[in-house]
C-alpha cells in the first residue's frame, strides 16, 4: 500500500517523511508534561519537601511543552496537507492520463456520475487518510514504540500490564475491519449509483417534464438515495459497537496496570517510583496508541480506494500508434471489420472502399450499426477484427492527433463549450484568425443568428445555449468543421435537428463543407444522399448491398423499402405543412 502511495506521491514524498518526524516531535513534547508531573509527585512520595523554584520550573516546563507540542503538531499537519494535496493532484493526473489512452466510446458509456465520483469524491476522500491517517499514524507508531521501550527498561512487568487491554481492543478492531470490508463494495456501488442517478435526473429534467415522468423518475432518484442511506447506516450499525469497544479498550492502559501494579508494589515486586513513572507514561500514551491502531485500520481502506480507482480504468488502452500519415491519398478502406460492445458483435465482416473525394452514404434501419462504423472510423474504439485504412495505412498505427487532423467528425451531439461563440468555432482550428472564424461562420450560415445576439461572436455559449435552436447549434459545429478543412469528413445525422426551413440551408452548408473531400455520411433522410457516389445498405450489422441510388432502387429490396418509407415520411411532413 505504501508503495502505491509513494508512487503517486513522487516529489511530495519528502514532505510526507518530514511531516512524520515533525509530528513525532509533537508527540514527544506531549509526553514531557507527564514526565514533569512524575518529577513533582516523586519527592512527595518520598516525603521530601520541594522548593517553589523547583515547582515553577516544572510548571513552566509543562506550559512550554504544550506550546511546542501545538506548534509542531500544526507544522506537521501543514506539511502533511501540502504533501497530501500534491499526491491527490498526481493521482488525478495519472488517472486522467490513463483515461486519455482508453477508447473514447468506453469513457462515454461509463456515465458522467461514475467519472465524477471517481475524479472528485473518491480522490477527495483520500485526503483525510493521506493528510492525517498516514503521517499521524506513522509518527504515533514510532512514538508509541519509543515510550514502550522506555517503560520496558524502567520495569518490564509493569510495562506488560499497560498493554494488557490491547489484545481485546485489537480483536474488536479486527472484527470491525472484517465487517467493514464485507460491506465496502456494496457501499461504494450504492454511492456510485446515487451519483449517476442524480446526474441523470438533473440532465433529464426536460424530458421528465415533457413526458410527465416526474413521479417515476423521482421514484428512481429516491430509491437511489434511500439505498445509499440504508447501506451506509447498515454499515455503521454493524461497526459502531466494535468501534466503541476498541475506542475504549485501546487507550485503557491503566485497566490492568493500576490494580496489578499496586499489588506488585505492595509485595515488593516493583518499586513505587517506577510504578508512578510507568503510570504517568501509560497515561501519556493513550491517544498516540489509539491513533496507531486507527492508522492500521485505515491502511486497507486506502488500498481499497486506490485499487478500485485503478480497476475502474483498468481497461485495455486504445491501440493508437505514433506514426505520421504517409499514405498517398485520402481514400478509405474497411477490411473485414468486425466489432462488438461488451462481446456482442454489432458489425460483422465489413468490406468497403471509399475513393478519395467521393461521397459514400450509409443507410439502414435503426440499430443496424451505421454510427458504430463511423465511431470505429474516427477511432473511438478499436476494431475487434480486420482493419480500417486511409491511403493504405492502418489507422491504428497513426497517432490520434494525426488521425484527428485528417478527419472532421460531425455527430448528432452538438456540444458547445461555455466559451464565446467565436472560441467555440475556433475549436476547429485553434490558430485560426478572427477573420477565418468569421468566414467559416458565414459559410455555415451562422451570421443571421450570431448577429441577433447582443454580444455577437463574444456571446458565451452557456448564456445563449437556450436561445439557440438545435439546428443553430448544429451549424456552429459545422462551422468548426469548415474551419478545420480536413480532407476527410464524417457526418453522422448532421442534419438531424434541421427543421424544413433550415434543411435547405444545412444542405447548402454541407455542400460547401464537403467540396473536394472524401465524405462518409449517415442519414435517415434518403433524399439527401441520392447523389452519393455509392450508397451502402446496412442490415443487422452487415453490408447487404452497395451501389448508386438508381442501381439499388432497381435491384435491392432492402433499399427500396427504406426509400419508400423515407418518401412517405417526407409526404407526411409536406401534408402537415400544407394543412
Ligand atoms: N455504447 C454502446 N454499448 C452497447 N451497445 C451499443 C452501444 N452503442 C450502440 N450499441 C448497440 O449497437 C447496435 C448498433 O448501434 P448503432 O448506433 O451503430 O446503430 P445505428 O444504425 O447507427 O442506429 P441509429 O440509426 O438509430 O442511430 C445497436 O443494437 C445498439 O443498441
Automatic annotation (TrEMBL):
Family annotation (SUPFAM superfamilies): ABC transporter transmembrane region, P-loop containing nucleoside triphosphate hydrolases
Where does the ABC transmembrane type-1 domain start and stop, copy by copy? 19-301
Q: Name one Pfam family in it.
A: ABC_membrane
Name-wise, this protein is ABC transporter ATP-binding protein
Q: Where in the cell is it found?
A: Cell membrane
Q: According to Swiss-Prot or TrEMBL, what is its membrane topology?
A: Multi-pass membrane protein
Q: Which GO terms describe its molecular function?
A: ATP binding
Q: Report the source organism.
A: Lacrimispora defluvii
Record's keyword terms, sorted: ATP-binding, Membrane, Nucleotide-binding, Transmembrane, Transmembrane helix
* Domain ABC transporter: start-end pairs: 332-565
Membrane-crossing ranges are: 20-41, 53-73, 126-152, 158-179, 243-266, 272-290
Amino acid at each position: 500500500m505504501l508503495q502505491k502511495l509513494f508512487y503517486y506521491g513522487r516529489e511530495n514524498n519528502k514532505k510526507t517523511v518530514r511531516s512524520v518526524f515533525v509530528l513525532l516531535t509533537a508527540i514527544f513534547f506531549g509526553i514531557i508534561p507527564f514526565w514533569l508531573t512524575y518529577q513533582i509527585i516523586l519527592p512527595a512520595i518520598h516525603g521530601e519537601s520541594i522548593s517553589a523554584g523547583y515547582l515553577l520550573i516544572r510548571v513552566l516546563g509543562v506550559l512550554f511543552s504544550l506550546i511546542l507540542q501545538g506548534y509542531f503538531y500544526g507544522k506537521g499537519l501543514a506539511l502533511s496537507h501540502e504533501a497530501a494535496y500534491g499526491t491527490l493532484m498526481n493521482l488525478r493526473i495519472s488517472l486522467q492520463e490513463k483515461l486519455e489512452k482508453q477508447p473514447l466510446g468506453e469513457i462515454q458509456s461509463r456515465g458522467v456520475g461514475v467519472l465524477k465520483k471517481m475524479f472528485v469524491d473518491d480522490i477527495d476522500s483520500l485526503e483525510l487518510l493521506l493528510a492525517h491517517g498516514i503521517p499521524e499514524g506513522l509518527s504515533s507508531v514510532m512514538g508509541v514504540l519509543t515510550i514502550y521501550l522506555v517503560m520496558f527498561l524502567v520495569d518490564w512487568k509493569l510495562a506488560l500490564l499497560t498493554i494488557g487491554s490491547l489484545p481485546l481492543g485489537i480483536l474488536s478492531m479486527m472484527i470491525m475491519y472484517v465487517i467493514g470490508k464485507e460491506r465496502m463494495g456494496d457501499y461504494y456501488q450504492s454511492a456510485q449509483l446515487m451519483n449517476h442517478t442524480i446526474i441523470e435526473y438533473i440532465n433529464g429534467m426536460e424530458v421528465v417534464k415533457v413526458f410527465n415522468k416526474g413521479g417515476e423518475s423521482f421514484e428512481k432518484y429516491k430509491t437511489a438515495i434511500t439505498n445509499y442511506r440504508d447501506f451506509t447506516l447498515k454499515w455503521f450499525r454493524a461497526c459502531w459497537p466494535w468501534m466503541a469497544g476498541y475506542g475504549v479498550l485501546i487507550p485503557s492502559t491503566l485497566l490492568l496496570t493500576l490494580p496489578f501494579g499496586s499489588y506488585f508494589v505492595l509485595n515488593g515486586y516493583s518499586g513505587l517510583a517506577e510504578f508512578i513513572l510507568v503510570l504517568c507514561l501509560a497515561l501519556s500514551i493513550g491517544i498516540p496508541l489509539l491513533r496507531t491502531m486507527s492508522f492500521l485500520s485505515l491502511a486497507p481502506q486506502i488500498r481499497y480506494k486506490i485499487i478500485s480507482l485503478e480497476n475502474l480504468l483498468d481497461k485495455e488502452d486504445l491501440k493508437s500508434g505514433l506514426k505520421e500519415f504517409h499514405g498517398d491519398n485520402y481514400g478509405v478502406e474497411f477490411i473485414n471489420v468486425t466489432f462488438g460492445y461488451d462481446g456482442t458483435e454489432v458489425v460483422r465482416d465489413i468490406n468497403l472502399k471509399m475513393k478519395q473525394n467521393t461521397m459514400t452514404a450509409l443507410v439502414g434501419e435503426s440499430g443496424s450499426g451505421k454510427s458504430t462504423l463511423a465511431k470505429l472510423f474516427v477511432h473511438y474504439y478499436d476494431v475487434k477484427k480486420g482493419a480500417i485504412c486511409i491511403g493504405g495505412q492502418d489507422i491504428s498505427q497513426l497517432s490520434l492527433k494525426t488521425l484527428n487532423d485528417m478527419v472532421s467528425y460531425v455527430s448528432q451531439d452538438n456540444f458547445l463549450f461555455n466559451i464565446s461563440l467565436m472560441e467555440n468555432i475556433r475549436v476547429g482550428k485553434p490558430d485560426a484568425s478572427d477573420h477565418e472564424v468569421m468566414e467559416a461562420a458565414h459559410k455555415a450560415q451562422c451570421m443571421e443568428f450570431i448577429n441577433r445576439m447582443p454580444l455577437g461572436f463574444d456571446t458565451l455559449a452557456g448564456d445563449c445555449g437556450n436561445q439557440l435552436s438545435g439546428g443553430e447549434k448544429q451549424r456552429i459545429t459545422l462551422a468548426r468543421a469548415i474551419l478545420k478543412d480536413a480532407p476527410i469528413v464524417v457526418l453522422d445525422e448532421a442534419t438531424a435537428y434541421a427543421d424544413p426551413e433550415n434543411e435547405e440551408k444545412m444542405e447548402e452548408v454541407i455542400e460547401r463543407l464537403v467540396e473536394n473531400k472524401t465524405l462518409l455520411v449517415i442519414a435517415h433522410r434518403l433524399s439527401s444522399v441520392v447523389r452519393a457516389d455509392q450508397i451502402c445498405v446496412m442490415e443487422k450489422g452487415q453490408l447487404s448491398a452497395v451501389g448508386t441510388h438508381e442501381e439499388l432502387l432497381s435491384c435491392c429490396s432492402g433499399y427500396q423499402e427504406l426509400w419508400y418509407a423515407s418518401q412517405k415520411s417526407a409526404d407526411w411532413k409536406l401534408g402537415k405543412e400544407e394543412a
